[in-house]
Structures are given as structure tokens and as C-alpha cells.
Amino acid sequence: MNDRIVHMLDASPSEDLIQVEGWVRTKRDSKNFCFFEVNDGSSLRSLQVILDKNTSDIAQTINRISTGASVTFTGHLVESPGKNQKVELQASDVILHGEAPADTYPLQKKRHSLEFLREIAHLRPRTNTISAVARVRNELSYAIHHYFHEKGFVYVHTPIISASDCEGAGEMFQVTTLPLNSLDGSKPIDYSRDFFGKQANLTVSGQLEAEIYALALKNVYTFGPTFRAENSNTARHLAEFWMIEPEMAFCTLEGDMAVAEDFLKHIFTHVLEHCEEDMAFFTKWVQKGVAEGLQQVVEKPFIHLPYTDAVELLHKSPKEFEYPVAWGHDLQSEHEKYLTEEIFKAPVIVTDYPKEIKAFYMKLNDDGKTVRAMDVLVPRLGEIIGGSERESRYDVLSSRLKEQDLREDDYWWYLDLRRYGSVPHAGFGLGFDRVVQYVTGMQNIRDVIPFPRTVHNAEF
Ligand code: ATP
Ligand code: MN
User: Fold this and answer.
1) Nearest-5° angle of CA 275, CA 279, CA 280?
2) Strand (E) positions, 159-302?
């Protein structure tokens, strides 16, 4: 295996013969020489390659090399007279692996719209923007595992196929081997004939199962795919997305918020330190000030704000909202943005939401009206984390299930965790793709995941 281009760019000139593998970004001809920019996705920067055209046995090959072609150049690194790079490759030989005919190859030098690039998701990682997203996504993913590993959290694999109906039944994808014509609604479905002998779905969250492991291993986290048949065609929703869900035993809402803040700051810092070049690119071409904004988020403490106070602040604001604010209703994205961008100019953790708009498992406050929930809101995006302290009292949980018309039988094991060795515990869910979106400043979540799945779209 040969070295990656990113390492060659910072190497010193040398007489050693090396090989450079990649895809041609540009080709430029002069009388005696041919100049190429070769990129292998290891960096935004390409390596400049100079080939002497007078070497007759490669003249034929050179003619067939154009933008998009895959090549191996052999040569040695020399000091570059150009000011854009330290070194360049003086090539003596080239192998052309695959041509990319200029009349049909879609990625010519001009800039393409992100919408167009979505239609060619098989070629878009060869562009600057999408390859930079892929590298930042990779670093974030590494930083997340690193953070939890260092803190002694155990990575738990929760099921992808779930037969326990946990939350929001409306937005689940059903998994079945029953003949589709038996599901047309004309007669009741006999799930005993289905693969699992009961109704099954793709998971919408691994939280309930993570709680099981937290109540044995103390601190755990999940990091896996999550599915929601959400019919919301927004720039922040996917039908298949990745979620990180830490769960901590012997932990209350205060501890939960502290971990959420520390964790976000850790992964943002990691990206600022390890993706400098890509972040400079996003700052210049995608979202002004994005790197600087992240730096500020890392330096300042997050704001803590009870929901009731948030509603009051929004009421007092002179701004006209599309959706009026009312106690008991969920905050809309416009409200979240107003709080983070206009009022506090920082991430805001909103706590203690009305119980009616949150899930049954969140711990009931003494007022009987609100629950120990917390959403982390960030500028530009709104909600990035949703979490809570869990209800650890058997009686209260049982009556909360009844209030929400959920059957105790379906949650027997979840209730058992409150019967045996129950303890205050808390956790949160972080949408991974939303983090990538936030960090890069990309406007649309479809451009931060390799192959987005949304309503009416599952191409590639
Ligand atoms: P929203 O109100 O934005 O739809 P939610 O309240 O449904 O989010 P949770 O159920 O709390 O979200 O999920 C935890 C996290 O998962 C969210 O904070 C968000 O970052 C992410 N998330 C939720 N739904 C989606 C989705 N359809 N696509 C991408 N990320 C999502
Ligand atoms: Mn949602």
C-alpha cells in the first residue's frame, strides 16, 4: 500500500522513487510538460504532478488522461517553484487505470449545486465539499467513541429490530415476512404467523435497552442507526439516521446536563484540532464563521433555562412568530433559534418541559405538571440533543403508563428495573447527522450522510 497524498504534501524533497495513486482533478498542457492535480481524498489539497511529454512511450497514455481518471504516477518529490505547495512530483512513469471520458463524466471543473450532487451520490464523494464532510464525520465518530471510552462508558449494541413498541408508534417502519396482501386492512392481522410471532419494527431509539445495561454496568452508550418514518420533509430529518445514546446510573438531570455539555465540547474541540483544513474550507465556502462559532461554544458555559421561563421570554419578545408560543406546546424550530441566536447567543439547555409533550419515562417533578427533561438547543440548528432523568419510582412510572394509555404488560421488563435495584438514572440522545450538520455548517442533512433516506428517496 502506498502512502496517502496528504502525507506527501508535507514531506521533504527526496531522490526516492515513490508512487502516487489517485484521481485526476485537473490536467494542463504545455509544449514539453503536462501538469496534473491528483487527489486521493486524504485532503482537500491535491498533489501537483509534472510529466515530461517527450518520453515517447507514455505520450499515448497522457492523451487519454482527463479529469476523473484514476492513475498511478511514479517519480520523486522535488521542491516546487510554485507558491501553493512545498513539493511536487516529478514523474517518470504513469499507469492509467480507468479513463473518465470528458463528454460524459459529470464532475467537470465547474461548481455543481448540492441538489445536483445528490442525484449522483455515487460520484459526489470525489468533490471537495462531500469529501470534507466525510472526513469530518469520521473524526467526529472517532471522537465520540474516544470520549466515552476514556470516561469508562461501555459501548452497548442495542437491537435494530425491535418488538417492543416504545415510543411514537406512528413513525415506525414495520418489519414483516407476512404476504403484503394480508396487510391491506380488510381483516385483522394474525401476527402469530409473522416471523417473530408478533409485530416488529425498526428501532426508533435504543434507550430502553440501554437503560437495562446502565442498571448493571453503570455508564453505557449506544451508537447506531435509528429509523423514523417521519413524513417531515425538512432539512434536519432523515428516515434513517445515526444516534448516540449515553445512559448513566446514579445520575440525575444535573449530571446528565453536565455530561452533555462536556461531551459536545470535547467532540467540537477534537474537530477544531484535527480538521483544521476542512473547517477552513467550510468557513470559506459553506457557512461564514462556522469554525469561530464552534470555538466560542467550546469556551462559554451553556445556558440553563426552565421551559416555563423560556415561554415567558418568548412571550416578551417583540418578534412575530409563525407559530404562537403557548405553555404546554412544544417549542418550534423558530423559537429554538430565537433563544439561541438572538437572546443568548449560545447553546441553551431547556429543562422541565410539560409532561404532556414528553415521553412517559421522564421523571415527574414535584409540581406534578413538568418532567425532568432537557433539550440542548444550538444556534443555526435548534434541537441537537433530547434527554432526561428517567422515572425510577415504580408507582409513578406505572401511573404515567396508564395516563398515556400504554399497557403495563408491554413494559414488564422496563417496570422490573424499578422493582429490583432501581436507582436515579439519566441519559440523552444525540442525532449524529445533526452534529455533523452543525459542525460543518451544511444547510441540509441530506448532504452530511453518504446515502440519505427520506420520503420517496432511497436511491443507491
Ligand atoms: P425533532 O423534534 O427535531 O424531530 P425529536 O424530538 O423527535 O426531534 P428525539 O426523539 O429526542 O428527537 O431524538 C433525539 C435526537 O435525535 C434529536 O435531538 C435529534 O438530534 C435526532 N433526531 C431525531 N429525529 C431525527 C431525524 N428524523 N433525522 C435526524 N436526526 C433526528
Ligand atoms: Mn422528531
Assistant:
1) 120
2) 161-162, 174-175, 200-202, 219-227, 240-249
Contact (Cβ atoms closer than 8 angstroms) between residue 125 and residue 134:
yes
Q: Kindly give the pairing relationship between strand 348-354 and strand 370-378.
A: antiparallel
Q: Please tell me if the CB atom of residue 384 comes closer than 6 angstroms to any atom of ligand 1.
A: yes
Reduced DSSP (H G I as helix, E B as strand, rest coil) percent helix, strand, coil of the chain, to 5 = 35, 25, 40
Q: How many CA atoms lie within 13 A of 375 on its CB side?
A: 26
pLDDT, tens digit, 9 for 90 and up, residues 246-294: 999 999 999 999 999 999 999 999 999 999 999 999 999 999 999 999 9
- Locate cell 445512559: which residue? 247
How far is 108 from 97, CA to CA, in rounded Å? 19
211-221, pLDDT tens digit by residue? 999 999 999 99
Report the DSSP pairing between strands 200-202 and 161-162. antiparallel
Mark the ranges of the chain whose per-residue pLDDT is less than 50: none
Instruction: Report the separation in Å between the CA atom of 234 and the middle of ligand 2, taken as the mean of its atom positions.
Output: 11
Q: Which residues contact 383 (CB under 8 A, 6 or more apart)?
A: 333, 336, 375, 376, 377, 434
User: E-strand spans in 40-104?
Assistant: 47-52, 70-79, 87-98
Cβ–Cβ under 8 Å, residues 430 and 259: no
The dihedral over CA atoms of 269, 273, 276, 282, expressed in degrees to the nearest 10, equals -10
β-bridge mates for residue 226, sequence order? 241
Distance of CA 336 to the CA centre of its chain: 20
Number of alpha helices (DSSP H) and beta strands (DSSP E) in the chain: 13, 16
Q: Are 91 and 18 in contact (CB under 8 A)?
A: no
Q: 274 with 439: CB under 8 angstroms?
A: no
Taking the CA of residue 230 as reference, the ligand 1 atom at the shortest distance is: 27
Determine the pLDDT at residue 323: 93
Nearest CA to ligand 1 atom 9: 386
Q: Which three cell numbers stand for residue 233?
A: 420533509
Residue 184 pLDDT: 87
CA-to-CA distance for 160 and 226, rounded, in angstroms? 7
Helix (H) or strand (E) segment spanning residue 305: strand 303-306
Contacts of 147 (CB under 8 A, 6+ apart): 263, 266, 267
170 touches 204 (CB < 8 A): no
CA torsion, points 267, 156, 208, 177, in degrees to nearest 10?
Answer: 120
Nearest atom in ligand 1 to 434's CA: 20
Ligand 2 centroid – CA 311 distance (Å): 20
In the reported structure, the alpha carbon of residue 84 is separated from the centroid of ligand 2 by a whole-number distance in angstroms of 46
Task: Please say whether the beta carbons of 178 and 193 come within 8 A.
Answer: yes
